[in-house]
Amino acid sequence: MTADWWTLLPVHGMATGKSRLAPVLDAGARAALNRQLLIHTLEVIEEWRGDLAQCVVVSPCEEALTCARAAGAQTLREPAGAGLNAALSFGDADIAVRGGVKLLVVACDLPRLSAASLRALTSRANAAGDAAIAPDRTGLGTNALALDAGARNAFHFGADSCARHRAALMRAGYRVASHVCDELAFDLDTPQDYAEWQAQRDARMPRGTALPVRQTMEEAEK
Fold first, then answer.
1. Is the pLDDT assigned to residue 215 strictly greater than 50?
2. Nearest partner of 9 among 47, 37, 50, judged by Cα
Protein backbone atom coordinates (compact mmCIF):
# COMPACT_ATOMS: atom_id res chain seq x y z
CA MET A 1 0.00 0.00 0.00
CA THR A 2 1.14 3.55 -0.71
CA ALA A 3 0.65 4.51 2.94
CA ASP A 4 3.46 2.14 3.95
CA TRP A 5 6.12 4.03 2.04
CA TRP A 6 8.58 6.48 3.52
CA THR A 7 11.00 8.40 1.31
CA LEU A 8 14.62 9.09 2.25
CA LEU A 9 16.31 11.85 0.30
CA PRO A 10 20.06 12.45 0.75
CA VAL A 11 21.31 15.94 -0.12
CA HIS A 12 25.04 16.65 -0.31
CA GLY A 13 24.67 20.41 0.10
CA MET A 14 23.60 23.53 -1.77
CA ALA A 15 27.10 24.95 -2.11
CA THR A 16 29.00 21.67 -2.44
CA GLY A 17 26.76 19.49 -4.61
CA LYS A 18 27.22 18.96 -8.35
CA SER A 19 30.93 19.80 -8.24
CA ARG A 20 31.46 17.90 -11.51
CA LEU A 21 29.48 20.63 -13.26
CA ALA A 22 32.12 23.22 -12.33
CA PRO A 23 33.47 23.36 -15.92
CA VAL A 24 30.15 24.78 -17.14
CA LEU A 25 28.48 26.34 -14.06
CA ASP A 26 30.07 28.68 -11.55
CA ALA A 27 29.55 28.25 -7.80
CA GLY A 28 26.47 30.46 -7.64
CA ALA A 29 24.80 28.70 -10.55
CA ARG A 30 25.54 25.27 -9.07
CA ALA A 31 24.00 26.33 -5.75
CA ALA A 32 20.90 27.60 -7.57
CA LEU A 33 20.66 24.34 -9.50
CA ASN A 34 20.97 22.26 -6.31
CA ARG A 35 18.17 24.24 -4.68
CA GLN A 36 16.02 23.88 -7.80
CA LEU A 37 16.60 20.13 -7.91
CA LEU A 38 15.72 19.71 -4.22
CA ILE A 39 12.50 21.68 -4.55
CA HIS A 40 11.54 19.76 -7.70
CA THR A 41 12.19 16.41 -6.03
CA LEU A 42 10.13 17.34 -2.98
CA GLU A 43 7.27 18.54 -5.19
CA VAL A 44 7.26 15.23 -7.10
CA ILE A 45 7.30 13.21 -3.87
CA GLU A 46 4.43 15.31 -2.53
CA GLU A 47 2.46 14.71 -5.73
CA TRP A 48 3.04 10.96 -5.40
CA ARG A 49 2.32 10.70 -1.66
CA GLY A 50 -0.15 13.55 -1.13
CA ASP A 51 2.12 15.29 1.40
CA LEU A 52 5.67 15.18 2.74
CA ALA A 53 4.86 13.87 6.22
CA GLN A 54 6.74 10.63 5.47
CA CYS A 55 9.64 12.18 3.57
CA VAL A 56 12.97 12.57 5.38
CA VAL A 57 15.81 14.71 4.02
CA VAL A 58 19.22 13.85 5.46
CA SER A 59 22.00 16.36 4.86
CA PRO A 60 24.96 18.08 6.51
CA CYS A 61 23.79 21.36 4.92
CA GLU A 62 21.64 23.70 7.01
CA GLU A 63 20.31 25.48 3.93
CA ALA A 64 19.10 22.19 2.47
CA LEU A 65 17.48 21.18 5.75
CA THR A 66 15.78 24.57 6.09
CA CYS A 67 14.46 24.32 2.53
CA ALA A 68 13.12 20.82 3.21
CA ARG A 69 11.40 21.85 6.44
CA ALA A 70 9.79 24.83 4.70
CA ALA A 71 8.32 22.41 2.15
CA GLY A 72 6.90 20.20 4.90
CA ALA A 73 9.45 17.37 4.95
CA GLN A 74 11.10 15.80 7.99
CA THR A 75 14.84 16.46 8.36
CA LEU A 76 17.91 14.86 9.88
CA ARG A 77 21.35 16.40 10.16
CA GLU A 78 23.91 14.02 8.71
CA PRO A 79 26.56 13.02 11.27
CA ALA A 80 29.88 14.74 10.61
CA GLY A 81 32.06 12.78 8.20
CA ALA A 82 29.44 10.07 7.75
CA GLY A 83 29.51 9.71 3.99
CA LEU A 84 26.51 8.81 1.83
CA ASN A 85 25.99 5.18 2.82
CA ALA A 86 26.38 5.85 6.55
CA ALA A 87 24.03 8.85 6.26
CA LEU A 88 21.41 6.68 4.56
CA SER A 89 21.75 3.99 7.24
CA PHE A 90 21.29 6.72 9.85
CA GLY A 91 18.14 7.97 8.13
CA ASP A 92 16.79 4.47 7.56
CA ALA A 93 17.20 3.61 11.25
CA ASP A 94 15.30 6.76 12.20
CA ILE A 95 12.46 5.89 9.81
CA ALA A 96 12.28 2.32 11.18
CA VAL A 97 11.96 3.70 14.71
CA ARG A 98 9.08 5.89 13.51
CA GLY A 99 7.29 2.75 12.32
CA GLY A 100 8.22 2.96 8.63
CA VAL A 101 7.56 -0.27 6.74
CA LYS A 102 8.77 0.41 3.22
CA LEU A 103 11.62 2.70 2.19
CA LEU A 104 12.28 4.56 -1.04
CA VAL A 105 15.71 6.14 -1.43
CA VAL A 106 15.87 8.53 -4.38
CA ALA A 107 18.67 10.72 -5.72
CA CYS A 108 18.15 14.46 -5.76
CA ASP A 109 19.51 15.16 -9.24
CA LEU A 110 16.77 13.74 -11.46
CA PRO A 111 15.23 16.62 -13.43
CA ARG A 112 12.79 14.33 -15.27
CA LEU A 113 11.51 12.68 -12.11
CA SER A 114 7.74 12.19 -12.02
CA ALA A 115 5.17 10.90 -9.55
CA ALA A 116 4.26 8.17 -12.04
CA SER A 117 7.84 6.91 -12.10
CA LEU A 118 7.95 6.66 -8.30
CA ARG A 119 4.59 4.92 -8.27
CA ALA A 120 5.81 2.40 -10.84
CA LEU A 121 9.06 1.71 -8.99
CA THR A 122 7.45 1.17 -5.60
CA SER A 123 4.78 -1.07 -7.10
CA ARG A 124 7.59 -3.43 -8.17
CA ALA A 125 8.68 -3.76 -4.55
CA ASN A 126 5.32 -3.62 -2.83
CA ALA A 127 5.09 -7.29 -1.88
CA ALA A 128 6.81 -8.35 1.34
CA GLY A 129 10.36 -9.49 0.68
CA ASP A 130 10.66 -7.70 -2.66
CA ALA A 131 13.01 -4.88 -3.63
CA ALA A 132 13.47 -2.80 -6.77
CA ILE A 133 16.42 -0.88 -8.17
CA ALA A 134 16.28 1.99 -10.67
CA PRO A 135 19.68 2.16 -12.42
CA ASP A 136 21.18 5.20 -14.07
CA ARG A 137 21.64 5.39 -17.84
CA THR A 138 24.94 3.51 -17.72
CA GLY A 139 23.34 0.62 -15.86
CA LEU A 140 26.16 0.82 -13.31
CA GLY A 141 24.89 3.38 -10.82
CA THR A 142 21.74 3.45 -8.67
CA ASN A 143 19.36 6.43 -8.83
CA ALA A 144 16.57 4.98 -6.67
CA LEU A 145 16.15 2.00 -4.40
CA ALA A 146 12.91 0.55 -2.97
CA LEU A 147 13.06 -1.99 -0.16
CA ASP A 148 11.96 -2.68 3.41
CA ALA A 149 12.77 -0.04 6.01
CA GLY A 150 15.35 -1.11 8.58
CA ALA A 151 17.23 -3.47 6.27
CA ARG A 152 20.80 -4.13 7.43
CA ASN A 153 23.83 -3.42 5.24
CA ALA A 154 21.49 -2.18 2.51
CA PHE A 155 23.33 0.78 1.02
CA HIS A 156 26.29 0.45 -1.33
CA PHE A 157 26.33 3.69 -3.30
CA GLY A 158 29.56 4.38 -5.15
CA ALA A 159 31.29 2.58 -8.02
CA ASP A 160 29.15 -0.19 -9.58
CA SER A 161 26.45 0.40 -6.98
CA CYS A 162 23.69 -1.23 -9.02
CA ALA A 163 25.40 -4.63 -9.04
CA ARG A 164 26.50 -4.23 -5.43
CA HIS A 165 22.96 -3.35 -4.29
CA ARG A 166 21.52 -6.31 -6.18
CA ALA A 167 24.05 -8.74 -4.69
CA ALA A 168 23.57 -7.47 -1.13
CA LEU A 169 19.78 -7.60 -1.38
CA MET A 170 19.81 -11.10 -2.84
CA ARG A 171 22.09 -12.27 -0.02
CA ALA A 172 19.52 -10.83 2.38
CA GLY A 173 16.77 -12.92 0.77
CA TYR A 174 15.08 -10.29 -1.39
CA ARG A 175 13.67 -10.89 -4.83
CA VAL A 176 15.17 -7.95 -6.71
CA ALA A 177 13.54 -6.30 -9.72
CA SER A 178 15.22 -3.81 -12.03
CA HIS A 179 13.05 -0.88 -13.05
CA VAL A 180 14.42 0.98 -16.06
CA CYS A 181 12.75 4.24 -17.11
CA ASP A 182 14.01 7.56 -18.43
CA GLU A 183 12.58 9.63 -15.56
CA LEU A 184 14.66 7.71 -13.03
CA ALA A 185 17.69 6.96 -15.21
CA PHE A 186 18.58 10.49 -16.33
CA ASP A 187 20.65 12.37 -13.76
CA LEU A 188 22.61 15.59 -13.90
CA ASP A 189 26.10 14.34 -13.26
CA THR A 190 28.38 15.60 -16.03
CA PRO A 191 28.59 18.70 -18.25
CA GLN A 192 27.28 16.53 -21.09
CA ASP A 193 24.20 15.61 -19.02
CA TYR A 194 23.59 19.28 -18.28
CA ALA A 195 23.92 20.26 -21.94
CA GLU A 196 21.46 17.54 -22.97
CA TRP A 197 18.95 18.62 -20.35
CA GLN A 198 19.19 22.28 -21.35
CA ALA A 199 18.78 21.43 -25.02
CA GLN A 200 15.65 19.35 -24.42
CA ARG A 201 13.96 21.82 -22.08
CA ASP A 202 12.09 19.05 -20.31
CA ALA A 203 9.01 20.64 -18.72
CA ARG A 204 8.82 18.23 -15.79
CA MET A 205 11.25 20.42 -13.87
CA PRO A 206 10.02 24.00 -14.43
CA ARG A 207 12.73 26.61 -14.82
CA GLY A 208 12.86 30.15 -13.57
CA THR A 209 15.75 32.24 -14.77
CA ALA A 210 18.07 30.19 -16.96
CA LEU A 211 21.26 29.20 -15.18
CA PRO A 212 24.33 30.81 -16.73
CA VAL A 213 26.75 28.54 -18.53
CA ARG A 214 30.33 29.40 -17.63
CA GLN A 215 31.84 28.31 -20.94
CA THR A 216 31.03 26.25 -23.99
CA MET A 217 31.20 22.49 -23.92
CA GLU A 218 34.09 22.61 -26.41
CA GLU A 219 36.06 24.88 -24.07
CA ALA A 220 35.25 22.68 -21.05
CA GLU A 221 36.61 19.59 -22.81
CA LYS A 222 39.96 21.18 -23.72
1. no
2. 37
